[in-house]
Amino acid sequence: MKKIWSIFLVFVLVAGVLAACSGEEKSSGSGKGTIKIGGIFDLTGGTGDVGTPYAEGAEAYFDSIKDEEINGYKLELIGDDYAYKIPEAQKMYQKLKSKDKVSGILGWGTGDTEALRQQVAADKLPYFSGSYSENLKDIKESPYNFLTAASYSDQARSALTWIKENHSGGTPKIAFLYNDTAFGKSPIEDAKSFAKELGMEVVDEQIIDVQALDATSQLLNMEKKNPDYAIIQQTWGATATILKDAKKLGIDTQFIGLNWATGEGLIPLAGDAAEGFIGVVTHAFPYEDLPGMEEIKKYLEGRGEKLEDKNQKFIQGWVSAKIMVEAIKIADDPTTGEGIRKGIEKLKELDLGGLAAPVTFTADNHAGTNKIRLAEVKGGKFEVITDYISY
């Protein structure tokens, strides 16, 4: 019965997000017309646990401004589920570009974003991804890709710097736990190199499937190397598996997850095994008292919803959409990808009301920030333990 109920909930979420994100072009009745932004989302694939609330947050932001004119235009988000499959992302991209005539895209995964970046560059379509791959910082290879949060590699570097500054008792020993996807592997070599630069000892690395339900064998192998810290590059599901199996095995390594491993959705999955877990925080938790949270709260209340029913990944999607719209507001020509790119490159220390670190983009740098915070699970809730830090 529990399984049937879970499947039903997935279908409800998918239907809700797709109904909200898709639709035909609507006449604004005034102004200059409608600018369309595409959405390539993972609702039902390997990272759908975090992808669904991210997509809901992006859709919610566009819905919150549907009655406004932005730089003289109405804005519309046209999104769909690609189920974390690169060929599906490529098909969807072609539809968004050729049929829907979008002027920019909110994308998702590392593998698909990297696979699309040459087409994105050729088509001159600004692309904000849920992927924060270091490769996307290469402006020569990815001139139309923008990172709206610290890259995975920068997240790992900052976490390792924090370890270096706070560790006591000899040389820190580090392990890495990640999945065998472009997303999972993205920061690993950079992080290993940086750990060695800091004088740390990298003692182990283990590959654990992104949807793993058991990580016992990998953790037993890791335990033989006795690492002080293990950096996790996963989403909630596999991270919960790691934490539960580590608790069962009595492993006392300190686990530190990068941003997609972190968030409220981890806690019910991991239970008390989540206690003491430290996560990289790129975006605010809904329960933080921050100026930027007010507009989200007001929007949700207008729909009969509550902020406390949302999670950090919802905030993450909201912020990504907001940054795109802020660029459209100041673009000289917001109807073209090239025009929106120039608008993005005008954003300087964009204040996001505490929802995320301020972002700055220039013609030479499309990485908006390298700052993160860290949070620790205490009493079944993430508590932020640092201000914004970088390496």
UniProtKB/TrEMBL annotation:
Keyword Transferase found: no
Domain Leucine-binding protein: 34-381
Cleavable signal peptide: 1-19
Coiled-coil portions: none
Keyword Signal assigned: yes
Keyword annotations: Signal
Family membership: Belongs to the leucine-binding protein family.
The protein's name in its UniProt record: ABC transporter substrate-binding protein
Species the sequence originates in: Cytobacillus solani
